[in-house]
Amino acid sequence: MKRRDFIKNTSVAGAGLTLAQKKKQGRRDSKLSVAILGSGFRGQSHISLLLNRSDCRVIAIADPDKEMVKRTKAMFSKSGNAQPMVYDNGQKDYINLLDKEKPDVVIISSPWMLHTEMAIACLERNIYTGMEVCGGFSIEECWALIRAEEKSESHLFFLENVCYRRDVMAILNMVRQNLFGELIHLECGYQHDLRGVKFNDGKTAYNSGVEFGEKGFSEAKWRTQHSVHRNGDLYPTHGIGPVAQMININRGNRFLYLTSVASKARGLHNYIVDHPKGGSSHPNAKLKFKLGDKVTTSIVCNNGETVILHHDTNLPRPYSLGFRVQGEKGLWMAVNKSIHIEGLSESHRWESQDAYLKKYDHPLWKRWEQKAVGAGHGGMDFFLVHSLLEHAKNNEVPPFDVYDAATWLAITPLSEQSIATGSQPQPFPDFTRGKWLKNTTKFALNDAY
Amino acid sequence: MKRRDFIKNTSVAGAGLTLAQKKKQGRRDSKLSVAILGSGFRGQSHISLLLNRSDCRVIAIADPDKEMVKRTKAMFSKSGNAQPMVYDNGQKDYINLLDKEKPDVVIISSPWMLHTEMAIACLERNIYTGMEVCGGFSIEECWALIRAEEKSESHLFFLENVCYRRDVMAILNMVRQNLFGELIHLECGYQHDLRGVKFNDGKTAYNSGVEFGEKGFSEAKWRTQHSVHRNGDLYPTHGIGPVAQMININRGNRFLYLTSVASKARGLHNYIVDHPKGGSSHPNAKLKFKLGDKVTTSIVCNNGETVILHHDTNLPRPYSLGFRVQGEKGLWMAVNKSIHIEGLSESHRWESQDAYLKKYDHPLWKRWEQKAVGAGHGGMDFFLVHSLLEHAKNNEVPPFDVYDAATWLAITPLSEQSIATGSQPQPFPDFTRGKWLKNTTKFALNDAY
Asked: Which CATH number belongs to the domain containing residue A210 in this structure?
């Protein structure tokens, strides 16, 4: 691969080399240097994992939010780590971080609208780039990421943590061992009552009020605006990432097209009106939220599978990613925690998933379980950060690469376009430009990382 | 309503009067006369309920299948009822039945392709017409039913039994009492491993072989052919009927359009190849089944709700109609038998449905529970037949009328069209021609029928 041929760079000496260059010269620091762009709660969660590791140092953070910087610095003090360099002089100060600190690895955990811009800046500087998830804005943005990565000497690792969820990995293990036969139909999504996240009192992050934007705090500050103006699947990747692993998207298979439907929007308005700090005369009660309370997207795949993707964040409900994995021989549904496998299960009857999840527990989980305990989101964040750093050490192609990022991000603008046009089907570009014909999966093939 | 004005008919005297005419003249027999068109297993199931009732007599059956006629006659002997007149001289002999026996009520439980033709013949003869469910074939067929009904002095009762399922009626009760608030999103469908129904050995109906068509028995004789040639939601009404009650379709609301996706087809072929009486050299192993194993249809409603409709009949799986009823205030899902209602349930947590289903048990079920015990499909068939006969007695507009029949049947051809055109959206005609603006529901408003 051309961009992995670093001969052209070996004449550059001293500080300021990329990780790949340092490695090539056998001069790499024994610890990876990591910078965090966006040190809000998600960035802090990553930092807490990084501070527990002996193979990296968090050398710098960039965030214009003084309150979040303060909280982040307190984490370093509390854990007895050296303070990071702080770049908090506006939203472009992260560029100075990249140029002055020259981190080996960057984690981008900023608001959604900054992800692509930041990732491109990192890739241009040949930094191993971990980019947090969200939905995208345009197909052109997806291509821009790909252009930047293909020119870069480094890689984009798309940080989809749910791929590491224990039950999901056990099911993937079962898929790979052919328990379900050839896969036929899958469902997934993001079904999470975010009303108490989208609104707060500007001080306490969750369930504290009905403000957002400039008057909000944390995610309410920036995330809620998307629900005001956009109608589509705004957050597809927690569902589609794991499903993509099971049906080998971009690796012998690809998404052909999608259609989306959106319900009416009631939940966010009701929340404002019914909240003790809101009411029908609160200014936010006048807003018309564009985001349908339930957005459902149907995807048709090249190899004949169908995928249904749920987005449901404005209504009272229990958390559920709604996984369904159905093949020739059997079916798993997460919502009732049940499995049916022909020949193993009683005909026409569910079995509890428990024995299967235990038996097919993924080697990664078996090996690293104790390390994962206490990590964010039921331990899966440990595996995510672990994988990011281990791949970065050797500048390896990540399991969720720039083509996956582009494909998964594209669901958001495509679903918006479908809804805006009365559910017209929207084709997926082949972001790999044919590489999906030969590429094979690199995800979780053993217990290493 | 013009067709209910029977003055023009009162001069006709003697036998051969319609039910409505006899009633008008105060000359109606105290028992309804019922005829069954199609006395296969579904017809026999209805007959067993009818033979238990004191308000009707089953006077005639029509079916060209000698074996099924024999079984049906045995039911009459066993129960000590007078034998019905039998019309078994080919597929058109039912016309002779209608003209000679002049039944008050007909139940059409023949193969799908005969439903519309038979219903139109009954309506032309002003017979109160109960038509069994299936999916339709064309939009024109739906209009033909409507034209026939609007000209008739009688009515079409579309026999969707799942509207009477106990949990479904309790949830409808909760919907009407506003437990869920304004409804936002619904799911439903027909998910039933029918492989052992679509194929048999020509003698035993279920799980006995891999034959169908002329070599098959019962449903395998005619139903399987649809899976060979058609790709769409072939059986939408068990799901959509109950959902239509909850969101008042054709009564202040209507379906605007749908899109459908279909997965690849593997299940039926596998079944033939893997069956001990089949194998890869069995002639049926050469067939290419057109019906995708999983067909998913998304419907957008005039009042802003979305409906997802599942069709899944070719793969190993437990039976599930997959109901999901979601509103501003809460959510029911049948698959995990759970409910979440804001203010009642713990925040972000499921509750068992049990206490809710008990508390909101529908008055119909409370009153008739003992009668329903033992009736087909968990008792709901009792309510269906009960409702049909009670409505027929007074020639009342049924709860599921010809406009519902047309709307629900239309899903099949519309889904076929959508799949055939790469999931292009397909508009629903307004079969009511505006009557949905004013019509209101007649379904299950009290405990009578």
From this structure: 3.30.360.10
Clarify whether residues B133 and B207 are in a common domain. Answer: no
Instruction: Provide the number of structural domains found in chain A.
Output: 2
> What does B23-53 look like in DSSP terms, one character per residue?
HHTT---SSEEEEEE--SHHHHHHHHHHTT-
| Interstrand relation of A306-312 and A324-327 (parallel, antiparallel or unpaired) | unpaired
Contact in structure between B109 and B40 (CB atoms under 8 Å):
yes
Which domain-ending residue is among A106, A129, A161? Answer: A161
Shared domain for B157 and B171, answered yes or no, is no
- ipTM score assigned to the predicted complex: 0.94
**Per-residue pLDDT tens digits for B431-443:** 999 999 999 999 9
Domain termination residue (choose one: B161, B181, B208) = B161
Place of tokens 């005001």: A228
A329 touches chain B (CB under 8 A): yes
B315 interfaces chain A, CB cutoff of 8 Å:
yes
pLDDT at B15: 40
3-state secondary structure of B366: helix
Q: Dump pLDDT digits (tens) for B56-90.
A: 999 999 999 999 999 999 999 999 999 999 999 99
Read off φ and ψ for residue B130, nearest 5 degrees.
-95, 120
- The domain of B33 spans 23-161
Quick: pLDDT tens for B23-50: 656 555 689 999 999 999 999 999 999 9
Distance CA A1, CA B214 (A): 61
Which residues in chain B are closer than 8 Å to A303, comparing Cβ atoms?
Answer: 264
Residue B236 CA to chain centroid, in angstroms?
Answer: 9
Do residues A318 and A282 share a domain?
A: yes
Using CB atoms, which residue from A184, A336, A422 is nearest to B425? A422
Query: Cβ–Cβ of A263/B340 closer than 8 Å?
Result: no
- CATH assignment at residue A153: 3.40.50.720
Instruction: List, as ranges, residues 257-276 from B with C-beta within 8 Å of A.
Output: 257, 259, 261-264, 266-267, 270
Interface test mutation site (partner B, options A188, A301, A317, max chain B beta carbons within 10 A): A317
Please indicate, yes or no, if residue A198 is contained in any of the structural domains.
Answer: yes
Element holding B354 (H helix, E strand): helix B354-359
Could you tell me if B417 lies within 8 Å of chain A, comparing CB atoms? no
A142 shares its domain with A264:
no
Mean pLDDT across B13-19: 49
Residues of B in contact with A257 (CB under 8 A): 422-423
- Is residue B382, in this structure, part of any structural domain at all? no
A308 touching B, CB under 8 A? yes
Mind spelling out the 3-state secondary structure of A179-203? CCCCEEEEEEEEECCCHHHHCECCC
> Residue B409 falls within a domain, yes or no?
yes
Residue tagged 């099949």 (tokens) = B412
Do A340 and A290 belong to one domain? yes
3 state SS of B168: helix
Residue A214 lies in a domain: yes
